[in-house]
Design brief:
Shape: elongated
Mean pLDDT: 79
Largest sheet: 8 strands, antiparallel, barrel
Structural class: alpha+beta
Strand content: 15-25%
Radius of gyration: 33 Å
Number of helices: 9
CATH class of the largest domain: Mainly Alpha
Bound molecules: protoporphyrin IX containing FE
Low-confidence stretches: 1-36, 265-302
Number of domains: 2
CATH architecture of the largest domain: Up-down Bundle
Helix content: 40-55%
Distance between the termini: 104 Å
Length: 477
């Protein structure tokens, strides 16, 4: 007898025929009229559960992104979101080529309609939600310097349509896309509640094969009226197989997250190395500040040779670049970010004759290295450091003073992004024969120099950036 195993009636028939006998999947398939339509294809099943797990991650990561981890979390959220978009396009193409198994003929018409409608609504949401997210980050004029990376491997470009728009329209689009993103996500959560409710009702109340045909290892609850012991065993097996599936999904998500964290930690290590480099720099760090050869060109192009100070009798100090570093310390969304600067300095300094001392530093901004490679584009962004138009920054220190605690201060002019402003900082100095070690900390108000003007939300780098300066120099004989 040709038999369908999906319907309630079929289940009843089964109960009568084989009370207490657990049907193996093979026997189910062998007994169905059209095995190809009895359940979803493996590809459809894998995509269904992979996307379901990714959606769970998206809801969590989107709704809990706050504080110092928000930036990294949203970077991951965007990568997973774009992946969902891609998988959904593949899934839809597959679905059009491989129709879903037919619904049980005894299912009421309204339920069939609801089932189809909800499935197509899901597909629409799985496209529209990531697209709205992509629009949100592409249109946002304030964060155009933050790229969307695919798991730190490559950059997913911003959507191109917004470049030509004025800032006000871009802000409008960003706001609308954000609202749509949130609203549709909430809508999908409601749809999911119905979807899961329906799946569980089919499985536990109707006892048909709806859940089984989408979930390998889960069997329809036919024949469940057997001997109590068999029943217990079969329930146990079902729970175990559901559990295994759950563990597999969690393991996949956890493994993905672990890989991401491992990469992030490796990235952080770069930051730590740069920080340590401040105290004990290593020449192995390729991003180490300004190998002399590297900075030679701009330095010889623009730096005075300090010969006038030398003529006046001030000793000339040659920086040992591999032991020195200038590092800007800031943050994005509270997460620390460092910019290791490439520079070259000429120093004429006499601790006993500060009046004739002077220092000139030139920074090669195009070579500055941001600790998070994803933020490197902030260096060229016209709203931020715009290195294409302003490839160098300079500091000319002209006025030194010895302070009561034995440290020194220096004042002069800092030119950054084409703006020159009075600027100074204090430092400690240790001179040991012909070797001098100087450690200082400066504070730069970025707005004074038009860096990130108007970009002052809590997610943006704070207005004040600290600059750690460590300089080791040798007296020129
Ligand atoms: C199916 C995929 C996605 C789902 C389910 C999803 C869901 C969410 C949810 C629930 C939020 C929290 C909304 C709020 O309370 O503000 C959120 C925020 C966000 N999503 Fe998505 N998202 C997805 C894909 C994407 C994609 C592809 C991008 C960008 C390429 C993106 C970018 C963002 C951003 C930037 C936020 C933070 C908005 C803010 O609060 O400033 N999302 N997402
Ligand atoms: C956000 C997560 C989820 C999404 C986006 C989603 C989406 C979908 C879609 C679009 C289909 C239709 C497949 C097609 O015909 O092409 C489907 C089918 C199905 N889903 Fe989900 N689903 C999710 C989570 C779940 C969960 C948690 C369960 C189990 C409790 C589940 C159980 C099922 C079942 C049993 C079917 C087959 C229905 C049938 O045979 O008609 N889904 N799902």
């Amino acid at each position: 007898m040709a038999r369908r195993f999906k319907g309630v009636r079929a289940a009843e028939a089964d109960r009568k025929h084989s009370e207490g006998v657990e049907m193996s999947e093979a026997s189910l398939e062998a007994s169905s009229v059209d095995t190809s339509r009895a359940r979803y294809t493996t590809v459809a099943i894998v995509l269904h559960w992979a996307i379901a797990a990714a959606i769970a991650f998206q809801m969590w990561s989107g709704m809990t992104a706050e504080g110092s981890s928000a930036y990294a979390q949203i970077q991951l959220h965007k990568a997973v979101g774009v992946t969902i978009l891609l998988l959904t396009v593949i899934r839809l193409a597959w679905r059009l080529a491989h129709p879903a198994p037919t619904l049980p003929s005894e299912m009421p018409g309204w339920q069939k309609l609801a089932s189809h409608a909800s499935h197509w609504l899901f597909y629409a949401a799985l496209i529209a939600i990531p697209v709205s997210g992509w629009v949100m980050v592409s249109a946002n004029p304030d964060f155009s310097m933050i790229p969307t990376m695919w798991f730190k491997l490559f950059t997913i470009p911003h959507l191109p349509f917004f470049d030509a728009m004025d800032v006000a329209s871009r802000k409008n689009v960003t706001g609308l896309a954000h609202e749509a993103h949130e609203l549709m996500s909430n809508g999908m959560l409601a749809l999911l509640a119905l979807h899961v409710g329906a799946a569980l009702k089919h499985h536990f109340v109707d006892r048909d094969a709806t859940l089984a045909r989408m979930t390998p290892g889960v069997k329809p609850r036919m024949g469940a009226l057997g001997l109590p012991i068999r029943r217990v065993i079969s329930i146990g097996r079902r729970i175990a197989s559901l559990g295994l599936w759950l563990i597999a999904v969690i393991a996949i998500v956890a493994a993905g997250y672990a890989i991401y964290r491992a990469k992030a930690i490796r990235g952080d290590k770069g930051v730590t190395e740069a920080t340590v480099g401040l105290i004990a720099p290593t020449s192995s760090e390729p991003a180490a500040p300004a190998a002399p050869a590297e900075a030679e060109k701009p330095a010889t192009r623009e730096l005075p040779d300090a010969s006038d100070a030398a003529k006046a009798g001030a000793p000339i100090w040659t920086p040992l670049y591999d032991q020195s570093a200038v590092v800007v310390k800031t943050s994005v969304s509270g997460a620390p970010v460092e910019i290791t600067l490439s520079w070259k300095a000429t120093i004429a300094f006499d601790p006993d004759n500060l009046a004739i001392s002077k220092v000139d530093v030139i920074f090669d901004m195009a070579k500055a290295k941001v600790s998070d490679p994803q933020l490197q584009s902030g260096m060229s962004d016209t709203q931020w450091l715009d290195v294409a138009s302003h490839p160098t920054a300079t500091f000319h220190g002209r006025s030194f003073e010895k302070l009561a605690d034995g440290s020194y201060s220096v004042y002069g002019g800092l030119t950054l992004k084409g703006e020159e402003k009075p600027f100074g900082f204090s430092f400690r100095l240790k001179i040991d024969g012909d070797r001098a070690e100087m450690v200082g900390e400066a504070t730069v108000m970025r707005i004074d120099f038009g860096v990130g003007e108007g970009q002052t939300s809590a997610m943006h780098p704070p207005l004040e950036a600290k600059v750690d300066i460590k300089l080791v120099a040798e007296r020129k004989k």
